[in-house]
Amino acid sequence: MSALPDPSFSGNALEPVCLSVTQLTQAIKGALEPSFRQVWVVGEVSNYRPATSGHAYFSLKDAEACVATAFFGWASRKKFELQDGVRVLGRGRITVYAPRGNYQLVLDHLEPLGAGALQLAFEKLKAKLLAEGLFDAASKRALPSYPSRLVVITSSSAAAFQDVLSVLKRRAPHMHIILVPSLVQGAEASTKLIESLEIANRYTLGDVILLTRGGGSIEDLWCFNNELLARAIHKSQIPLISAIGHEIDFTIADFVADVRAPTPSAAAEILSASWVQASHRLEDGHVRLKNGILRDLSTKKVFLQQCASRLISPKDRLRDQAQRLDEVLERLARAMATVLQKKGDGLARFVSQLEALSPLRVLERGYSLVREASTGEVVRSAHQWRPGMALKVTFFDGDQNAQAL
Predict the structure, then answer these.
(1) Which of 57, 104, 294, 384 is the most exposed place for a label (fewest CB within 10 A)?
(2) Dihedral sign computed on CA atoms, order 29, 30, 33, 36
(3) Which CATH number fits domain 147-268: 3.40.50.2300, 3.10.290.10, 3.40.190.10, 1.20.1250.20?
(4) In terms of pTM, does the model score above 0.70?
(5) CB–CB of 39/89 below 8 Å?
(6) What fold, for 21-113?
(7) How far is CA 233 from CA 44, 204, 238, 277, 395, in A?
(8) CA-wise closest residue to 253 among 273, 228, 224
(9) Tell me: the pLDDT tens digits for 193-226?
(10) Domain boundary assignment for the chain
């Protein structure tokens, strides 16, 4: 860097040496940046302004001071959500931004305050339990296909529990749910979680255990990174599914659990999946059976209609026979009347003929019939006449007794 004139008085003159703004800024930049090539700064994020380029601009402040800060390429490197009010630990260098004539802290590393130590402890415990085989797939127990009793270990006031209830009420309302309440945050939470887990196993409260809580910071979820809790989960005789925090959150309990769900609601969906599938199969079977029966009934109905169209009802047959009988009786009556008429006419002719030949007709013409009274023999000849014999004379209108002279 070229030497700048001493900004004092020159030679014999009392006139000061004037620097341009650029010269002054360059002088400050040369003096400041080499002294602060790497610094660690703790502060609270303020006035956070993400740029469309992916860079982040904000201020770091404490109770008495504030420094302009930039993190170039933050969008592609971020490990947490940056926002106003977050206390962070940053590493970077001091630079002077000449266009505005101010200095700023340019970061190349940023993490939530305290998360670094917790993350280191998390990775250390994870490596230890991994080496012992607590995460091995071979040691994982399969969840029951159709669980009927679910043990939920969480806070009784947790929103996660309500989410689980809501999903199961909709997808598997018959499932019996047993809540074993426990702390899920704080120094004593790990101990309470272990006690709840031991109670569920001691009394075999269910077919599967759900260990769950909603999202939170790494500090909020830290009780699930407890070594004793991890070993208690591994020893559980009842299969266990974990659903802790949000989808991006992972805890030691998630790695030891038989199944890890990204959210409490997702855990409830996993637990009820077989029941939902069975319900769908049953519904599909019901629909197919119903449609099959309806098709069969329709076919039978058409067949019966065809048969019915070819069959004559017994009532109709009896009605037809009765009508035919009436017609036969009418014809028989007419035939009998005709025969009787003919017979009557013939009989009348015979009667007429007989009457013409009847002796009564002869008597009506003035003749009489003489018979012997004692024998009734007709006296046909004078030779039969004997004086004194008793006679009976028949006229056309009656008989009279007589005596032969």
Answers:
(1) 294
(2) negative
(3) 3.40.50.2300
(4) no
(5) no
(6) OB fold (Dihydrolipoamide Acetyltransferase, E2P) (2.40.50)
(7) 38, 15, 9, 29, 150
(8) 224
(9) 999 999 999 999 999 999 999 988 777 899 999 9
(10) 21-113, 147-268, 360-403
Q: Which residue has the tokens 């402890």?
A: 121
Which residues 6+ apart lie within 8 Å of 104 measured at CB?
67, 68, 69, 70, 94, 95, 96, 97
Query: What is the amino acid identity at position 205?
Result: L
Return the residue matching tokens 């805890």: 251
Which residue bears the tokens 């009842």?
238
Radius of gyration of the chain from its Cα atoms, rounded to whole angstroms? 65
Query: Long-range contact list for 163-166, CB < 8 A, 24+ apart?
Result: 163/263, 163/264, 163/265, 163/268, 164/210, 164/212, 164/264, 164/265, 164/267, 164/268, 166/265
**Residues 332-373: pLDDT tens digits?**
999 999 999 999 888 888 888 887 777 777 777 777 888 888
